[in-house]
Amino acid sequence: MAELSQLLWAAQGVTDTQSRRRASPSAGALYPLELYAVVRERGVVGLPAGVYRYSPEDARMTMAKNGDMSGALRAAALDQEMVGLAAVSVVTTAVVQRTRSKYGERALQYVFQESGHAAENVFLQAVSLGLGTVMVGAFNEEEVHSVIGARPEERPIYIQPVGVPQHRGERSTLRRKALSREPDRHR
To answer: What's the confidence (pLDDT) of residue 179?
Structure first.
């Protein structure tokens, strides 16, 4: 639960309560992105399977749908196996109108840039926690929208399946060995 909370905070968490700035940049500080966590059965200790909506203002998750939706999300993601097998998938959506109100035709460009910034933060945070993730952009928007129960004005942008790498222990051992080696003096 703490790891999932940290992943969501890294993407859109409030970093300054006075200015309401968030962990990833936003054009005009308009913050068009919304986050959902699609939690698989037994995917997150202490959290029932379901779809959760993240609230950056208070760093809370609210259940939007009950039950394991990982299979439906996998189908919506063109049957990409990692989406169905992940402990949790972070789905980023955007309310483009928030940005369009200030930036007009450039809004979509800024929204896509912002989604990349947030996804990178999730990726970096996952790695720092010893977790694995990938960015998934190939999916049926209407199906993802339905699976997560997004509001009509939201547009799905990214899916990031997150889980414990199968060989995490082995990698940790290899990393410790690599870090304990003497520096290469021939370079």
So the answer is: 37
Q: Is 88 helix (H, G, I), strand (E, B) or coil?
A: strand
- Measure the CA–CA gap between 184 and 187, rounded to whole angstroms: 6
Q: Are 129 and 3 in contact (CB under 8 A)?
A: yes
- How many CB atoms lie under 10 A from the CB of residue 156? 24
**What is the DSSP pairing of strand 14-16 with strand 21-22?**
antiparallel
Q: For residue range 92-133, what is the model confidence (pLDDT) as tens digits?
A: 999 999 999 999 999 999 999 999 999 999 999 999 999 999
pLDDT of residue 178: 36
Q: Are 48 and 61 in contact (CB under 8 A)?
A: no
3-state DSSP assignment of residue 110: helix
Domains belonging to the chain, first-starting first, are 2-180 (3.40.109.10)
Task: Count the neighbouring beta carbons within 10 Å of the beta carbon of residue 109.
Answer: 12
**pLDDT of 174 above 50:** no
